[in-house]
Amino acid sequence: MDTPQTPLPVLELTDGRLRLRPWQDQDAAELYRAVHESVASVGQWLPWCRAEYGHDDATGWVEHCQAGWHTGEHFALPVFDASTGELLGGTGLNQLDRLHRSANLGYWIRQSRQREGIAAAAAVLVARFGFEQLGLIRIEIIVQPDNHPSRRTAEKAGARFEGIARHRLWVHEQPRDAAVYALVPDDLR
Length: 189
Known about the structure:
With 189 residues, the chain is an alpha+beta fold. The protein has 4 helices and 8 strands. 27% of the residues lie in helices and 31% in strands.
């Protein structure tokens, strides 16, 4: 994938409640704790969230995110409580298709802070970044059909359900169908 022609912006996104910025080295320790807290809830949907997740995994993820940010290949961001600085989870844009100006949006929130509307608010912040700063025209949210909390999050963020895509995901070593949601710029106006 070609790298962007212009330098990438230094980024901090906030809505007053949440603060998102690129991953930094010092985030790895809190990421490790957030993942371990969330194995029971997040782990059933996202295979990387598992009891065996180690400090090296957290450090590797942060480094992967930093590299993707610098190349413009993907934009993963930690989600922080703007008041306390607590790491709440992560979100971001990946699978960027520059030709068709589209991307995939993902999110996860640590177990102790779920059901507070955090993921939907973070998704809106990231989607605005994608539309306004990256020039995207479409952002998809791909969810396992029985992951009702994530589907509600997509809907709360303003995404529209478009259908079920057969064998769209590979999860826990099996093909899985996926509910496809999408945002376009007008959905956030």
